[in-house]
Specification:
Length: 276
């Protein structure tokens, strides 16, 4: 039964990653993605927030809370992986600058593909990490569906508009299934998280990342950058964890971070909308 749940979790992760990135591509044009990225100062700050400060915060909390190594690696993977497709929905809730949110999300997603394989071995010394395998997995599961969605949106906008709601539903359902299957398959591991500092670390980490994005963003980009830095790319983190780490607690920690982010960032986005 447990093996079946594990297979179900792996399939759900694949569907979640592919459908999320495909849905983004079906919703956008290349021009929409590139337009808000012409301000190089804003781009540089966004990259620093997500690929320098966010990973350092994750690594620091791993040490401060003295997390077990698999839990620390799970938190670190969340810190390294940015560009979550759910940022678009959060930005809508927050009434943020949607053009910037879209461009930011795609920029972070693309950079993540090349960044994680290079940087992860630096943080996790002595762990067998296959950079090529990570890069290939992320390209196949994220960049190719994104490119396919963009191409279909450009060549057949009517068809893309009809497909988009169905793909978005697949993304939502598969995300829920990832959480359910992961908890069910690793129930003992999930239960073991209680009584540790794993949940507290996830809460503190999400708050720190939101603060990093808020203070590094300008008046127009602050909301989107705060949400974009706090909402880590769980899809990419799941892919890397599944390809390179056998301990189920790594995936469990990513799931914990994902749940905490939803519980914290949805009301935060609503609050930002009211403070407009």
């Amino acid at each position: 039964m447990n093996d079946l749940l594990l297979k179900g979790s792996n399939v759900a992760v694949a569907f979640f990653v592919v459908s999320s990135t495909l849905a983004v591509g079906l919703s956008l044009t290349v021009g929409q993605i590139l337009a808000p990225l012409k301000n190089m100062r804003v781009v540089a700050l966004a990259l620093a927030a997500n690929f320098v400060l966010a990973p350092l915060a994750a690594f620091g909390l791993w040490r401060v809370f003295d997390l077990d190594e698999p839990l620390g690696i799970g938190l670190l993977l969340c810190g390294l992986a940015a560009g979550a497709p759910f940022l678009i929905k959060l930005a809508e809730f927050a009434k943020a600058d949607m053009a910037f949110a879209v461009g930011l999300m795609v920029l972070l997603m693309v950079v993540t593909v090349g960044y994680v394989p290079l940087v992860l071995p630096i943080f996790v010394a002595g762990t067998a990490v296959n950079p090529v395998q990570i890069a290939v997995s992320l390209v196949v599961l994220m960049l190719i569906p994104l490119a396919a969605g963009l191409l279909l949106r450009a060549r057949g906008p009517g068809l893309a508009a009809r497909l988009r709601p169905a793909v978005a539903k697949v993304s939502t359902v598969s995300m829920i299934l990832v959480i359910v299957f992961t908890i069910a398959a690793h129930f003992n591991s999930v239960r073991s998280v209680f009584g540790t500092f794993a949940i507290l670390a996830a809460v503190v980490y999400t708050a720190i990342c939101a603060g990093i994005g808020w203070f590094m963003g300008g008046s127009r980009t602050r909301k989107a950058l705060a949400l974009g830095t706090a909402q880590r790319n769980a899809a990419a983190a799941f892919v890397v964890a599944g390809q390179n780490f056998d301990d189920p607690k790594v995936v469990v920690m990513i799931t914990v971070v994902l749940i905490v982010e939803f519980l914290m960032l949805l009301p935060f986005a609503r609050r930002l909308a009211r403070s407009r």
